[in-house]
Amino acid sequence: MYDLELDNLKEQLKLKKPRRILVHLPCGLKPNSMEIKKAIEEVSDAKIVFWSGSNYGACDVPFFTQKLGVDLIITFGHSEWVYQ
Question: Of the four, 15, 54, 56, 79, which is 20 to 30 A from 28 by CA?
Fold first, then answer.
């Protein structure tokens, strides 16, 4: 299973206070969408939109997000990011 880092997500949401969130998931993590939705709702009353199209990585952001009025995009992936 994957560590979705939902505690980190909640902390970031408390800091950023978004009004409209786009959640961008690859197919393998789409079954976790309800878990992610519940975590967001615990700390935010933001409108949540799930992108159901493709996700081939952090660079594959849906092109029409401005039209949705999204002020935060949360992209999940299968691979861990290494920070140095």
Answer: 15
Cα–Cα distance between 44 and 60 in angstroms, integer? 25
Residue type, 77: G
Place of tokens 């994957």: 2
* pLDDT mean over 61-65: 73
Domain range for 73:
1-9+18-44+64-78
Angstrom distance (rounded) from CA 76 to CA 2? 10
Specify if 59 maps to a domain.
no
In a domain, 56, yes or no: no
Domain-embedded: residue 70: yes
Closest CA to 22 of 64, 43, 51: 51
**Rounded-to-integer distance, Cα 34 and Cα 79, Å:** 21
